[in-house]
Amino acid sequence: MSDQPVSPDPVEPQGEAATPGNPPAAVESMPSLEESLRTAEIKAAEHYDAWLRAKAETENVRRRAAEEALKERKFAAEKFAAAMLPVTDSLEAALGVENATLETLRSGVELTLKQLQQAFQSAGLVEISPLGERFDPNHHQAISVVEAEAEPNTVVQLLQKGYLLHDRVIRPAMVIVSKAKGL
Fold this sequence. Notes:
Keywords: Chaperone, Cytoplasm, Stress response. By secondary structure, this protein is of the alpha+beta class. It has helices at residues 33-74, 78-96, 102-122, and strands spanning 125-128, 140-147, 155-160, 162-165, 168-171, 173-179.
């Protein structure tokens, strides 16, 4: 035995060995910090530009919606006003008649009332006429209570019609309601 340490066998690299005609396999290198920074700045600029465009589009949509809502409020009564014009014309024509009789005035008023009711109907205005129905405090306003043959809490007299506009009470019907006898 000798005093010299035994050296292990050299390990050959796996894969093809480098030869004069065959350069070693390319080692993937990490991009430099400058390149990474440049790429990140470009992406950040693209995202910022996209954000600015989205923000501008959102503001445009919001502005257009506000303008449209303003127009809707301003001209909401346009259809109803157009339906009321024939009623006005009829009333003015009735006042313009020189030799009107009671019958002609009555028939003119009836026709005008029909025009008015049609205008109300086309606008979604429905009358509340609850005679004989159960009292509903959401749609009726009781003015007084009287003893009557009807079941208690029944509308026995209508003093003034009420009106709903698309299921919202515009004016409750003013009614007199029955109570049990002897109470």
